[in-house]
Design a protein that fits this description.
Layout: H1 2-17, H2 22-34, E1 36-41, E2 44-45, E3 49-52, E4 55-57, H3 59-75, E5 80-85, H4 96-101, E6 107-108
Parallel strand pairs: 1-5, 1-6
Antiparallel strand pairs: 2-3, 3-4
Helix pairs in contact: 1-3
């Protein structure tokens, strides 16, 4: 887990500090000027980000605390983390892509689908906690479904009231 955390932190740093990306330089400069790292997370995306009582918890909080320490060393100043709620609704102004593209947040952390062509103004970090797809089905359906294929013509759904809905 410790090595994974280091890789993730350096992936995030690289995406912010890479001199070839003007947008990243703007973000880094804003963090340096304000001393605030604005992080977007969903409230109900356990174990990545969730609110327990009135306090934000989860893996993303731990990652951002580690990232904050590295930023403080690199920028030679104290940094605070502003946690902002991101909505699952992509059409909303508080959706993950719009929040990043419109500079509401510097970065977003959560259980996300990574698009092949992200919207303008959005750069993905290196993937982490990738699991793939897992299907529950009746035993007689196993012969008709190839989960490693494209699954064309196969109808699937999600469980009501689950975290993946």
């Amino acid at each position: 887990m410790n090595n994974k955390l280091i890789i993730i932190i350096f992936s995030i740093i690289f995406s912010l500090i890479n001199p070839g990306v003007a947008q990243s330089q703007e973000v880094l400069q804003e963090i340096k000027q304000t001393g605030v790292l604005k992080v977007g997370m969903r409230k109900y995306a356990a174990p990545f980000g969730y609110v327990y009582g009135s306090k934000w918890e989860g893996i993303c909080i731990e990652l951002m605390n580690g990232f904050k320490k590295i930023l403080e060393e690199k920028l030679n100043r104290n940094i605070s983390i502003e946690k902002l709620e991101i909505l699952l609704d992509e059409e909303s102004e508080k959706g993950r892509h719009r929040s990043v593209a419109n500079k509401r947040v510097h970065l977003e952390c959560g259980p996300n689908t990574i698009r092949k062509n992200p919207p303008t103004g959005v750069i993905y970090s290196k993937r982490f906690f990738t699991t793939g797809k897992y299907l529950m089905m009746k035993p007689d359906r196993r012969l008709t479904v190839n989960p490693d294929g494209f699954m064309e013509g196969i109808l699937i759904g999600v469980l009501n009231d689950s975290l993946t809905k």
